Amino acid sequence: MNMLLAIPLVVPLLGAAVTLLLRGVPRAQQIVGALTLSVVIVDAALLLARTADGTVVTTQAGAWAAPLGITLVADPMAALLLLVSSVVLLIVLLYAIGQDIGGLSRATPQVFHPTYLVLTAGVCLSFIAGDLFNLFVGFEIMLTASYALITQAPTRARVRASMIYTVVSLTSSILFLTGIALVYALTGTVNMADIAEKLGAAPPELRMVLALLFFVVFGIKAAIVPMHFWLPDSYPVALTRISAIFAALLTKVAVYAIIRTQTLLFFRDDISDVLLWVAIATMVVGILGALVQDDVNRVMSFALVSHIGFMIFGLGVGTAAGLAGAVFYLVHHIIVQATLFLVNGLMRQYVGHTSLRAIRGLTTVSPALALFFFLPALSLAGLPPMSGFVAKVALFEAGFAEGSPLVLAGIVAGLLTSLLTLIAVFRIWTRAFWGTPLPDMVEAKERLRNGANLGGLRFMTTMTGVMVAVGLFVAVAAGPLASIGFTAAEGLVNGDAYIEAVLGEGAR
Amino acid sequence: MNTPGLILVVCVAVLYSSGFYLLLQRSLMRVVFGILILGHAANLSLLLTDEAITLPPLLGGPSGEMSDPLPHAMALTAIVITFGVTTFLLALAYRVWLGDENDEVPDDVEDRRISRLTEPEDSS
């Protein structure tokens, strides 16, 4: 029994229980929450250290041998994403704590803390689940927590939005369950390593149908075009801390699940053309949506949809280099997207809303805010020397090496999308950050400066700064990260190590 | 395939189609019912994975044979999840109804924006 693999699941759930019991003592809840996530970060770092050379760590829960029991698996990709996610989760939690201390939020902390930790457990389980059914359970834990989180501080708009969100997510979950039933009927197992072994004997047409079904299931959650309509309608409406963590993690967990299932289970089946077409459509449609929005949160939500396309593109290229690019892009995008939503939250503190029609001169109001927007925005657009640039170069290089016409079309779409992203973020920059501040914004600033909640606001700003710093660190540490990404991608392309680690040496 | 299996197949097909039909309606109550029915369909299709579905799942019948217990366990888990989430959905639908006095899905925000574009707006 490897405790390292149990901790990311068990500790957050325990933490959730404790914070639920401590619901009358907000300070204790905050401390427990932060401690829990710190433990997960340390654990994920240890896991990454152990898997960085391509080792696959497994745990058979209850010591039931592999295809029968519940297997938890961490390969380099899962460990890397676990680490990045837990860091982002901790920073957003601290940001939320600062907001609560300053009395700047209408969230209910008593509900927020336990639910947030349950969400953490769900995200972690999704990354390390070794069988399809536990992947489903991980998704459900994560989603059920997110249903509760999105309705925090319920207004009419939020209840409406969460209705859309819940129904769409549930539809995807039910299709997921159907997929599991079909796979089980075909192979008699739900263990992913075992399925990978046994699907080889299944008729190719059936495998193709299953591959597409799972692509649709996770595609709904990842908001790829044409299944993205729910995202810009629901994410921007939620509280900032919640839309930040949703935008950063939930869609990426789904992308992880797409990459995991398509590489491990269905690698023989070539749906890469479909993946590439979808990737191109996602990139272009998403960013065109972002260009015409007037609300910063909505612009960011469409940009989020658009950039999911890059990761699908990496998967569509299908080589180790392409997948390495996709893994690096995942890491970069989790951090950048969280930062941008945190900045939007600060913007909302200063201005009271995020509509571009009534924001001017934020640079004068808060220079720090302008800097914190500028750096991740450049990274999102992929300008050197930011992490976005490194990630895009990795993807495009892999694409050129592959060189088929559709991949080249994908590269053109990617370059176009980067350019349009630049236009989209500069549109926000010129409208919201330049110019003379509107009178009510100056008033709001003075009110915040002199108010009792200044400490909370400073803490939130600091945490946003920390997130920006993490983003810069990704760019600085691009070399080591890329080598981990490449090890992870090689593990994905050749699933033997994964299968052997789960089923034991004699499996092949 | 034996007769109970065939009946189940027909059942699942009818449940999926009616579930998706209800899901596409504008009334939130119908959407909730759609989700419920789809949940049943998925659970039944889990049971369909076993040919020997008529046999008891754990200890064998008269002949000592048994059906595969794993789909039953998975269906149980899924039923619990669907039950919990449906309760939440009902509460949400009730909140929507309290707020708006109706339970229709509103027009899409983008649609309204596009229709507003026909009117003159300030250029900035």
UniProtKB/TrEMBL annotation, chain A:
What are the residue boundaries of the NADH:quinone oxidoreductase/Mrp antiporter transmembrane domain, all occurrences included? Answer: 129-416
Q: Which residues form a coiled coil?
A: none
For this entry, list what GO says about its biological process: ATP synthesis coupled electron transport
User: Might you report a single GO cellular component term?
Assistant: plasma membrane
Show the GO MF annotations. NADH dehydrogenase (ubiquinone) activity
Q: Indicate where this protein resides in the cell.
A: Cell membrane; Membrane
Q: Which family does it belong to?
A: Belongs to the CPA3 antiporters (TC 2.A.63) subunit D family.
Q: What is this protein called?
A: Multisubunit sodium/proton antiporter, MrpD subunit (TC 2.A.63.1)
What species is given as this protein's source?
Marinactinospora thermotolerans DSM 45154
Ranked from the top, the taxonomy reads: Bacteria, Bacillati, Actinomycetota, Actinomycetes, Streptosporangiales
Automatic annotation (TrEMBL), chain B:
Membrane topology field: Multi-pass membrane protein
GO CC annotation terms, alphabetical: plasma membrane
Q: What is its main location?
A: membrane
Which Pfam family, an example, fits this chain?
Oxidored_q2
According to the record, the segments passing through the membrane are 6-24, 31-49, 69-94
Task: Tell me where it resides.
Answer: Cell membrane
Ordered alphabetically, the record's keywords are:
Cell membrane, Membrane, Transmembrane, Transmembrane helix
Q: Which family does it belong to?
A: Belongs to the CPA3 antiporters (TC 2.A.63) subunit C family.
Instruction: Spell out the protein name for this chain.
Output: Multisubunit sodium/proton antiporter, MrpC subunit
Organism taxonomic ancestry:
Bacteria, Bacillati, Actinomycetota, Actinomycetes, Streptosporangiales
